[in-house]
């Protein structure tokens, strides 16, 4: 038993070392990609793809999808996204979900789109968390479930995703999936507006018409505290 545990530990260490080594090449590839040096980026990514490194598979999928330095090849992009998604790469799962939702590159399949979006959301893709909330709200690929929609909006909102903050405010305003609260609608609209979402500013002003001056002052204090917590959490996450 001890030998088995030791062997597994060794494999874990080797895997960590490999991932660390790959990360440097991946970062260089992303740097080249961002500055428009597509061939140089591809030269960094392709050896990693050969090693089945999912972040590189995802980056190469984007290259084929957009035709960066290569001829556009949506089918190749789909293949690479599928490979990365099979390793639970969050962004690949999210992108693949959108493909199944749109039904352009692959046959439209909303149930598969939902399943992929859920996997991405569980793995902390904020965009997926928001989209999963939308899918629960509309019953896309699943049943309508306002409480679950609200919970996923809140999960993304607390990671400073403005659209989720705005949608969560709407849920509070209408009392969908949460207890109706104009105050909490006001709070989340303040935060979403602080993140530059224009419609939230308009909704915030509408909310204020339904609140007393005392309630507005209390809600602003609550919004300030919550927003500060969100920013601090984001900074902490960025350091990890």
TrEMBL record:
SMART domains: SEL1. Keywords: Coiled coil, Signal. Pfam families: Sel1 (PF08238). Residues 209-236 form a coiled coil. Residues 1-21 form the signal peptide. SUPFAM superfamilies: HCP-like. Gene3D superfamilies: Tetratricopeptide repeat domain. InterPro entries: Mitotic_Regulator, Sel1-like, TPR-like_helical_dom_sf. This is Sel1 repeat family protein. The lineage of its organism: Bacteria, Pseudomonadati, Pseudomonadota, Gammaproteobacteria, Alteromonadales.
């Amino acid at each position: 038993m001890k030998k088995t545990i030791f062997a597994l530990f060794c494999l874990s260490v080797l895997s960590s070392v490999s991932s660390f080594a790959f990360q440097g090449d991946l970062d260089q590839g992303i740097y080249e990609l961002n500055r428009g040096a597509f061939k140089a980026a591809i030269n960094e990514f392709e050896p990693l793809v050969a090693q089945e490194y999912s972040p590189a598979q995802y980056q190469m999928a984007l290259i084929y999808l957009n035709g960066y330095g290569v001829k556009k090849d949506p089918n190749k992009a789909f293949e690479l996204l599928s490979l990365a998604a099979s390793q639970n790469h969050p962004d690949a799962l999210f992108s693949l979900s959108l493909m199944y939702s749109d039904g352009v590159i692959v046959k439209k399949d909303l149930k598969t789109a939902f399943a992929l979006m859920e996997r991405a959301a569980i793995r902390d893709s904020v965009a997926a968390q928001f989209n999963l909330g939308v899918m629960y709200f509309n019953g896309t690929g699943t049943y309508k479930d306002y409480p679950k929609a609200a919970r996923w909006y809140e999960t993304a909102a607390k990671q400073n995703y403005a659209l989720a903050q705005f949608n969560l405010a709407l849920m509070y305003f209408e009392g969908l999936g949460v207890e109706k609260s104009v105050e909490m609608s006001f709070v989340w609209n303040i935060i979403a507006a602080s993140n530059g979402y224009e419609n939230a500013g308009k909704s915030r002003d509408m909310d204020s018409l339904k609140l007393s001056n005392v309630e507005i002052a209390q809600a602003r204090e609550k919004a300030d505290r919550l927003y500060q917590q969100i920013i601090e959490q984001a900074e902490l996450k960025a350091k990890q």
